[in-house]
Design brief:
This is Aconitase/3-isopropylmalate dehydratase large subunit alpha/beta/alpha domain-containing protein. It is built from 15 helices and 21 strands. The chain is of the alpha/beta class and 512 residues long. The strands form five sheets. Strands 2-1-15-12-13-14 form a six-stranded mixed beta sheet.
Length: 512
């Protein structure tokens, strides 16, 4: 079992909060003050400055209108309303609906029950069906789920059904993609300014493209299948401004673990989380996807990053569909604004059993591991494996992993990248060659794998109480199998470093 490590508590000096209330914006001083109001309990004000004094002129209609955030603008466009504020309930037109083998059968059942067995979906080209969760298993019920998806897709002539028929060899299935959230991006279904809904909580990953993306339940999905619409409440927005050059030992996983550790797993409940700043602008699309992927672990309704040249470049060969990005107005109101000096951050982990149980990786150096897992929609992208390979190379090229280290690419394209893309600075070696030399398990078939526990024969599932360091997104009891297992969440850098030592390890041990 693991050895306890110390907890990083309290607000960090590099994490400042700017509050906004009644139109006044407040900046962070070097101290906090407490004020009292009659008939109210005392409350702590974390930051204060002189309110803005610019004159507020009424609009020509006599009502005062403020600017809108990115999320509010997307809702406004999708609901065909000129102006919205947080808390309003509006019917939105959905651009894309995604479902997979876990929730798809349930959503299809709702659709047939409410609209009729012979009903047709609202738009066969706006529905994306991606089997990915319980694929490579002999569990007959799991296999039956994929059969239901196939029957429905054939019946409705769904254009984007990424089928798998030969589970013994995923490469024999050219249509099979893998993890839905990564496949959505790779296949061009993510576009700025649009609304993407999916029957999976990590659908928020697509917010990296400057769109509103969130998870919904089977009942809502069944309704969307029939109408293309959904009633949604406009969320208020938390803004996270991250500035400074990203240290070469940090990844986006460290950034989002820092934020979740600061605001807690309920700190963004039904709120949009908007990420801006020079650090965010420097991130690749895959790193932005990591950032948005875990907003739901803070309770967030959606995560969103403004589209820019990086976004447009990524989409060049992915989609021919027209899209129109939106950006927050200068006058937009944010519920709170947080400023982070990224240069002062250190590699982090989230200890069992919550994503907000934040600690510095170096504080957990005595935690002995039984296994390391690199994969999932959070940490199974091409760049995640390139990052892990970089640490193995930095060990001198002769370092061997001390614990079983599982490699599970998110999609079939990522799997191909592991065998074909040369790792920078490796002399032409690929990730698969570097992993093999380090003693890692061979890259497995692309899927959600052990991240979702799954059937008993699911690859890399914990079938006994073990301590695992993982690049996944959740570390609740039973998440990766055995309910007594302990899961530490970390970046691919930290995962690879920890695999080499058999203990939770700060990647700077090898990278510097």
């Amino acid at each position: 079992m693991s050895t306890p490590c110390s907890i990083s508590s309290g607000s960090s000096s590099f994490f400042n909060k700017i509050s906004q209330k009644d139109g006044g914006q407040y900046a962070q001083p070097s101290f906090a003050i407490t004020i009292s109001k009659q008939k109210q309990a005392s409350r702590k004000i974390v930051s204060i400055m002189t309110p803005q004094t610019s004159e507020r002129k009424p609009s020509t209609t006599g009502s005062v209108k403020t600017g809108m955030t990115m999320t509010e603008k997307i809702f406004s466009r999708a609901s065909e309303k000129s102006h919205l504020i947080p808390g309003e309930n509006v019917w939105v037109n959905v651009d894309t609906l995604m479902t997979h083998d876990v929730c798809g059968p349930g959503a299809i059942g709702v659709f047939k029950k409410e609209f009729g067995n012979n009903a047709k979906v609202w738009d066969r080209e706006k529905i994306v069906i991606i089997p990915d969760h319980y694929i490579f298993t002999s569990d007959e019920r799991a296999n039956r789920n994929v059969d239901i998806l196939r029957d429905f897709s054939n019946e409705q002539n769904i254009k984007y059904f990424y089928d798998i028929t030969d589970r013994g060899n995923f490469k024999a299935n050219p249509d099979y993609k893998g993890v839905c959230h990564i496949a959505l991006a790779q296949e061009g279904h993510c576009r700025p300014g649009e609304i993407l809904l999916g029957t999976d909580s990590h659908t928020c990953t697509a917010g990296a493209f400057g769109q509103f993306a969130t998870g919904i339940g089977n009942t809502d999905a069944g309704f969307v299948l029939g109408t293309g619409k959904l009633l949604l409440k406009v969320p208020p927005t938390l803004r996270f401004v991250m500035d400074g050059e990203m240290p070469d030992y940090l990844l986006a996983k460290d950034l989002i673990l820092q934020i979740i550790g600061e605001i807690s797993v309920s700190g963004a409940t039904y709120k949009a989380m908007e990420f801006v700043g020079t650090t965010v602008e420097s991130l690749s699309m895959e790193e932005r996807m990591t950032l948005c992927n875990m907003v739901v672990e803070a309770g967030g309704k959606n995560g969103i990053v403004p589209a820019d040249a990086t976004t447009f470049k990524y989409l060049e060969d992915k989609t021919s569909m027209p899209y129109e990005p939106v950006y927050s107005d200068d006058q937009a109101r944010f519920l709170s604004e947080y400023r982070i000096d990224v240069t002062k951050l250190e590699p982090l982990v989230a200890k069992p059993h919550s994503p907000d149980n934040r600690a510095l990786a170096r504080e957990c150096k005595d935690v002995k591991l039984d296994r390391v897992y690199i994969g999932s929609c959070t940490g199974g992208k091409t760049e995640d494996f390139l990052a892990a390979a970089r640490v193995f190379l930095a060990s001198g090229g002769n370092g061997k992993v001390k614990v079983p280290t599982f490699i599970v690419p998110a999609t079939q394209k990522v799997w191909m990248d592991l065998y074909t893309l040369p790792v920078p600075g490796s002399g032409g070696k690929t990730c698969s060659q570097i992993f093999e030399q380090a003693g890692c398990d061979s890259p497995r078939s692309p899927s959600c794998g052990a991240c979702v526990g799954g059937p008993l024969d699911n690859y890399a599932r914990m079938n006994e109480p073990q301590v695992c360091l993982s690049t996944t997104n959740r570390n609740f009891p039973g998440r990766m199998g055995h309910k007594a297992g302990q899961i530490y969440l970390a970046s691919p850098y930290t995962a690879a470093a920890s695999a080499l030592t058999g203990f939770v390890t700060d990647p700077r041990v090898f990278l510097h």
